[in-house]
Amino acid sequence: MSGLLGRLGEWCARHGLLVLALWVLAAGLLTAGTVVWGRPVNNNVAIPGTDAQRAHELMREGFGPGFDPGGTVQLVLYTPKGTLNEKARKKAVERSMDALRRTPHVAQVETPYRVGGMSPSLRIGVITVRLRGQDTTKIAQTSEQLAAAAAPAARAGIEVVPSDSSTPADKQIKTGVSEVIGVVVALLVLLFAFGTLVAAIVPIFTAIVSIGVGLGLIGLLGHIVDVPSTASILATMIGLGVGIDYALFLLSRHRALLARGVAVHEAVRRTAASSGGAVLFAGGTVVIALSALMLAGFPLLATLGWITGVSVVCAVLTSITLVPALLGILGQRINALRLPFFGRAARRDGPATGWTRLGLWVARRPWRVLAVTVVVLVALAAPAVTMKLGPLDDGYGDKGTSARRAYELIEAGFGPGANAGLIAVAETDERIADSTPPDPLVQVLRQRIEHIEGVAFVAAPMVNDDGRSVLFQVVPDYAPSDPRALDVVKRVRAVQVPGARLHVGGEVAGMADAGDRMMSRTPLVVGVVVLLSALLLLLAFRAPLVAVKAAVMNLVSLGAAFGALAVVFSQGLGSRVVGMDPPVSADGSYLATLFFSVPIDTYVPLMLFAVLFGLSMDYEVFLLTSVRQAYTRSGDNRAAVAEGLGSTGRVITSAALIMVAVFTAFIAYPDPLVKVFGVGLAVAIAVDATLIRGFLVPATMVLLGRLNWWIPRWLDRLLPNLSVEGHEEDAPPAGPAEPLLVDAGRHARRP
Questions:
Q1: Residue 241 and residue 231: Cα distance in Å, rounded?
Q2: Strand pairing of 124-131 and 422-428?
Q3: Which parts of this chain are annotated as the region Disordered (predicted)?
């Protein structure tokens, strides 16, 4: 593999302008394609085989227009003075309804002056608009058009706020400011790391081209498969971070070779042969982890996983082709435009002394370092047991959004459960008539549901056209994010009436089913990710213990990330710090508490596991590559660990700072889901690059000694020799490393 990558890198360096033109052309054409043909999204939250999915399928069969998830929009009306019943305001509302009926795709408009359409105060009402034939991927635009059609009410002093039937996954997230902040911070870190403007710009430029190609592909894929609206933001977060990091690792290696006097094209070849292999394996672990989400049983999560993997693949491809091309074009000019007070020149005489001293310090006292580090990591992970999972409703959204405003008005006018409506659909063994009074079976079903603890209201039943199903709209007493709402779902599903089978759908029921499905599949996903990642490391380093240990270390960093999420969101100790707005109390005022708990969507931990496991493996691969190179030269385990940490510490720290900066910048997004991902990813990478790679991994490798690189003979014969660490000619000369080996301990030996 190292030979193949070396030849590819050298070819790209010698044909740099051609490779650069092809990548820029690809990014431009794909971006133009999304402008011309659009970026369709489809937040299909269907979970085949679940009770909620069956309820939604029945709801589409013969119950009239709009009884379809996403096929209904509510216009919430609010008058701060008087009531909606006053003559002038009522007339304005009726004119608005006439305008709504003339709007394309509107099948039915239900007046707020119906039973259940007006709050007891008569100041808040709801116009329910049922749609037919509209593009369900453009529900946000449809809501805006309907709100504009209600202009007569707005001119009469009535606040009109649209509210569609979206779920937490149905977010139209626009990118921009956070990406700019992340890129600027990354540029500053690169300037400090390299000290030259040209070298700092190369990883930024490469990542931008990679993101352009990746987002273009994702946008066009939306015409073929269902692409969630959150896919582009997650792809940008991950792609930007790994794109800069991978280019940084290659560039650091190349500059070190140039400092030793190696010719430009030869330096590119050696860089691609060694660091390029590490990039390929590191990216492979990320893609494997994300692809394993297909086993979670939640199609939306599976799609998010492999779509995000597209951006990682683009980052790997640009790193092993575009970066060598740029290095070949720039030649010795890679160190041009040096800035004063920034960075320092690439060293000829070995690794950075600060990290080397840390490596030697850890190597002399591995047991103590191991014990202290484990205690600290356990303390960081301990709060994870308090993590609060549940639907993340619009009550936690940004105050400036219409979704948050509509949520608050509905809650103030009709109670918290009005935002957590359930759809109960009963299949009947025999045909029933839509009559007055209702069929006895329908009456029994309604009475049973009404008497369930936690049910506030049950609307009049509806019988479908063929008389085989009856639909009840159920309003619980609790908000969507309240755990008690899930208990109501279970109680309604437990209703048993001879001759009928009851199914419950709606946002709360759907998310509950998604959580149950993923909880049952989590051991499978975790097992597959850990096993395949360990297998990939085994192929890379031919060291079974190293592969198993690396997988375990990644799980440790995940614990710290989940602990941070529990502290910030579940315990609420940092909810305001990350920009979350407090929910509204029962009296309609904002809670005055400094801390408030925020639920975490049930699918977030599994998604974070896949992303973080892959990203954490990046630094493991680069550290192990350097340690293996040193061990191959010297045969001294302690010295190799110290040298490996010393030669990669500065680069890994810079890469981690960049990734933390990128993820932290995304916390500024108003969407709570993005904030959760930003916090979790930033904390995990920070812990992984410091405590784990700086202390825990070196300490365990010193203690294992030669067992690190032990492999049974039968397995050695069976595995292909991929040589991810590169050939001996790619290693730095042994001479400068000799004093380091002597200092590593009295048992160290000279090369």
A1: 15
A2: unpaired
A3: 726-751
Query: Which one is the CATH code of 354-389+515-714: 1.20.1640.10, 1.10.10.10, 3.40.190.10, 3.30.70.2740?
Result: 1.20.1640.10
Q: Are 608 and 678 in contact (CB under 8 A)?
A: no
Q: What is the pLDDT of residue 316?
A: 93
Q: Check if 71-162 and 354-389+515-714 are the same fold.
A: no
CA distance 91 to 471: 32
Structure tokens at 541: 């380093």
pLDDT of res. 751: 36
Give the chain's residues under pLDDT 50.
Answer: 69-70, 166-175, 345-352, 586-589, 592, 727-751
User: Which fold does the domain 71-162 belong to in CATH?
Assistant: Alpha-Beta Plaits (3.30.70)
Sign, CA dihedral 415-421-427-433, equals positive
Phi/psi of residue 743, nearest 5 degrees: -75, -15
For 669, the token pair is 């997004």
Question: Which residue intervals of 438-543 are DSSP H helices?
Answer: 440-450, 483-493, 507-541
**Residue that the structure tokens 């400036």 belong to:** 400
CATH code, residues 1-37+180-335: 1.20.1640.10
Tell which residue, 44, 59, 53, 43, has the closest CA to residue 516: 53
Three-state SS string over 158-215 comes to: CEEEEEECCCCCCCCCCCCHHHHHHHHHHHHHHHHHHCEHHHHHHHHHHHHHHHHHHH
In degrees and rounded to multiples of 5, residue 573 shows phi and psi of -75, -15
> Alpha-carbon dihedral of residues 132, 134, 140, 144, nearest 10 degrees?
-80
pLDDT at 489: 92
Instruction: Please provide the distance, in angstroms rounded to a whole number, between the alpha carbons at the two ends of the chain.
Output: 26
pLDDT tens digits, one per residue of 299-341: 878 888 888 889 999 999 999 999 999 999 998 888 887 776 6
Cα–Cα distance for residue pair 372/741, rounded to 1 Å:
26
The length of the chain in residues reads: 751
Single out the residue of 290, 250, 287, 255 nearest to residue 271, CA to CA: 250
Asked if 193 contacts 689 with a C-beta cutoff of 8 angstroms, the reply is no
- Contact between 491 and 512 under an 8 Å Cβ cutoff? The reply is no
Taking every pair of Cα atoms in the chain, the longest distance, rounded to a whole number of angstroms, is 96
Domain 421-505 carries which CATH code?
3.30.70
How much is the pLDDT for 503? 93
Helix, strand or coil for residue 434?
coil
Residue 407, burial from CB neighbour count under 10 angstroms (0-12, 13-18, 19+): buried
Residue type, 213: V
Q: What residue spans define the domains of the chain?
A: 1-37+180-335, 71-162, 354-389+515-714, 421-505
Question: What contacts 430, CB < 8 A, 6 or more positions away?
Answer: 499
SS3 75: strand
428 to each of 441, 463, 496, how far by Cα in Å?
9, 10, 12
- Between CA 267 and CA 261 the distance in angstroms is 9
Angle, helices 197-221 vs 177-194, to 10°: value is 150
pLDDT of 66: 55
By the 8 A CB rule, do 321 and 8 touch? yes
Give the pLDDT confidence score for residue 455 in this predicted structure: 92
Q: What is the pLDDT of residue 342?
A: 57
3-state SS assignment for residue 650: helix
Closest CA to 557 of 401, 695, 717, 686: 686
Interatomic CA distance for residues 179 and 197, integer angstroms: 20
- CA-nearest of 123, 124, 126, 122 to 109 is 126
Res 749: pLDDT: 37
